[in-house]
Amino acid sequence: MVFTAPFFVLFRMETNQFLLYGANGYTGKLIARMAADYGLIPVLAGRNKEAITSLATELNLAYQIVDLDNRNELVDCLRQFKVVIHAAGPFKFTSKKMIDACLEAKTHYLDITGEIAVFEQAKRMNEKAIAHDIMIMPGVGFDVVPTDCMAKLLKDQLPDATHLSLAFAMLGGAVSHGTASTMAEGMGEGGAIRENGKIIKKPLGHKGRWIDFGLKKIFVMCIPWGDVSTAFTTTDIPNIETYTMASPKTFKALKWQAVYNWILRMSFVKNMAKKKIKAKPAGPSDEARMKAKSLVWGEVTNDAGNTKTARLIGPEGYTLTAISSLIITKKLLLGDYKIGYQTPAGCYGADLVMEIPGVTREFL
Questions:
Q1: pTM score, two decimals?
Q2: What is the CATH topology of the domain spanning 145-317?
Q3: Burial 62-74 (b: 16+ CB within 10 A, else e)
């Protein structure tokens, strides 16, 4: 484990420092580079010494080299910090190791996942988090801050809502290696919705529809987005479906998934996909990010058939992720948090997303 930085940097970081694990990933780098805009100074961490030290030198930041599988070193590292942003996915493989270490170290846990299983796993650790006096909040990025805030906004407008539909789309931009790798891990696994309070497996894209996002009308299909877990925690709405943009051609092709999903679940197929991912750019360029927009739409319905609908426009997804994760980190460092398992809007309210520059929203 290595900890290096000029002494004066370490001294003034005492009240605004946090640990950024997985700092060498695409989103981790964005968070590290934007932290100063929020008066925060990350200590960069990860297991890739060459990548971490290179970034630390570029940004003149402290760093620590520690592997998630080295429990003792990880706990010793975390004990130096009040908060960690865990940015090393796929989180189905990494989140529990970090949360377990955070419990022992009594360090607040944040991550940028969008995986239903990770949210559900974290939720089951609520009592442990309370006992250790820490907050566990997965999904402090695009997954799931804007959609979670949309769910809370609509629930506040229609308190007896029984059904929630959420959809998101991107205009421009691209996916990072981390996001693509997580998608590769989920190949062949199908979809999921929440029905009568329970998470139910469904074929991926079992429903499709056109949605007017304001800037554009876009075709979307049903996917297993993290809000299937988190929006239920935030709103108690028992029936939840989540959608994202897809071509009608892809939607039609998914009707045959029962025939080929078993092939997509095979390890060598997933490994081939990951190899192709690594050969592509790490993520969207800065220019592409600045031009791109994220779009969110939501609708709730009650038993009487009354509805409330709203939509939101914000910055590109990775940009939003970096900003929202830093906003929440700053709140934590200032003592604004609740112990136990929390969701972004459940803890900070529907207007959390409005603290992100460039976000606008409207009721329809």
A1: 0.90
A2: Dihydrodipicolinate Reductase; domain 2 (3.30.360)
A3: bbbbbebeeeebb
